[in-house]
C-alpha cells in the first residue's frame, strides 16, 4: 500500500530533482474540475534547451556536409588548403585563400576566378579547398552558402538528360538552368574538355552571360591555354570570363605522374 501511495505522489514531483509540483484547480469545457500541475524547478526547460542545441548542432553538421559535397565527388572531399602543396604554387594558393577569406565582398561584386594549369597541377584540389573553407565559414558564422560544382562535361550531360526526363523527381531543364544561372557561386571544372558544338557554346554563353550581367560569381578551371580556349570557345564567351574572373596560373607538373614515378622507382 505504501508503495502504491509513493508511486501516486511521485507524479506530483519533478522526476529529475524531486521538487514538488504546484497544483492549481482548473475546469474543463463541461465545468468538471481538475488539478493542473506545473513545475517549480527549471529542469525540463534546461533539458529542452540542451535537446534544441543538440538538434541545432546536428542541423549545422548536415548543412556543412551538403556544402562539402556540392557535386565535387568523394575523392576530393578531404582536400583542403592545409594539405595542398603550397610551395609548388604559392601565388595560386594565396590568391584562392584570399578569395574565400573575402568571400562576402567578392560575392557582392560578382568577382570570380579563372584557374589554368596543366593536368594534375592541383586546380581541382584548390577548388575543393575553397569549398571546404566555405563549409567551415558556415560553421563559424552560421551563414549557409551553397556553391554549385560541375565539370563542363557533366553540365552538358545534365541539360541533355533533362530534355527527356525518365522520372518525375528529375530536374526539368528550366530548374537546372535556374540553378546554374542563379546560384551564389558556380564552379565549372575542366572547361574545354567537352565536345565542341555550336549548341554547347551557346549553352555556356547563356549561363555565363546571365551571371556576368547579374554580378553572379563564377570560378572556372581549365587545362587549355589562352589560344586553345579562343579556338575552342567563342571570343565573346572568353571576353565575359576574362572580365568577371581573376586569372590564376598553376605551373607545376602533373603530381599524379610524379607519384607514379616514385612508385615505379
Written description of the protein model:
- Strand 5 (185-189), helix 8 (198-213) and strand 6 form a beta-alpha-beta unit.
- This protein has 265 residues and is α/β, with parallel strands linked by helices.
- The chain has helices at 2-10, 43-69, 90-101, 103-109, 123-141, 152-162, 173-182, 198-213, 226-232, 235-244, 255-264; strands at residues 22-27, 33-38, 112-117, 148-151, 185-189, 217-222, 245-250.
- The protein is elongated.
- The longest helix is centred in the first third of the chain and has 27 residues, at 43-69.
- The protein contains 11 helices and 7 strands.
- It folds into 2 domains: 2-38, no CATH class; 70-264, P-loop containing nucleotide triphosphate hydrolases (Rossmann fold, 3-Layer(aba) Sandwich).
- A 5-stranded parallel β-sheet has the order 4-5-6-3-7, with helices on both faces. The chain has a two-stranded antiparallel sheet with strand order 1-2.
Amino acid at each position: 500500500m505504501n508503495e502504491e501511495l509513493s508511486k501516486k505522489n511521485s507524479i506530483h514531483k519533478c522526476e529529475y530533482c524531486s521538487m514538488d509540483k504546484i497544483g492549481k484547480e482548473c475546469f474543463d469545457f463541461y465545468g468538471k474540475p481538475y488539478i493542473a500541475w506545473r513545475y517549480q524547478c527549471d529542469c525540463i526547460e534546461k533539458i529542452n534547451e540542451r535537446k534544441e542545441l543538440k538538434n541545432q548542432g546536428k542541423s549545422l553538421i548536415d548543412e556543412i556536409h551538403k556544402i562539402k559535397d556540392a557535386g565535387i565527388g568523394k575523392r576530393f572531399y578531404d582536400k583542403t588548403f592545409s594539405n595542398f602543396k603550397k610551395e609548388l604554387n604559392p601565388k595560386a594558393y594565396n590568391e584562392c585563400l584570399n578569395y574565400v577569406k573575402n568571400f562576402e565582398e567578392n560575392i557582392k561584386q560578382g568577382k570570380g576566378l579563372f584557374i589554368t594549369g596543366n593536368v594534375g597541377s592541383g586546380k581541382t584540389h584548390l577548388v575543393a579547398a575553397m569549398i571546404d573553407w566555405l563549409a567551415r565559414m558556415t560553421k563559424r558564422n552560421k551563414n549557409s552558402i551553397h556553391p554549385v560544382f560541375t565539370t563542363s562535361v557533366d553540365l552538358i550531360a545534365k541539360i541533355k538528360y533533362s530534355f527527356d526526363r525518365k522520372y518525375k523527381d528529375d530536374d526539368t531543364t528550366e530548374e537546372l538552368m535556374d540553378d546554374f544561372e542563379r546560384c551564389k557561386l558556380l564552379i565549372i571544372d575542366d572547361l574545354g574538355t567537352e565536345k565542341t558544338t555550336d549548341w554547347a557554346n551557346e549553352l555556356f554563353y547563356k549561363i555565363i552571360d546571365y551571371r556576368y550581367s547579374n554580378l553572379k560569381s563564377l570560378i572556372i578551371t581549365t587545362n587549355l591555354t589562352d589560344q586553345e580556349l579562343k579556338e575552342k570557345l567563342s571570343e565573346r564567351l572568353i571576353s565575359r570570363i576574362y572580365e568577371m574572373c581573376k586569372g590564376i596560373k598553376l605551373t607545376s607538373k602533373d603530381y599524379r605522374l610524379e607519384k607514379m614515378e616514385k612508385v615505379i622507382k
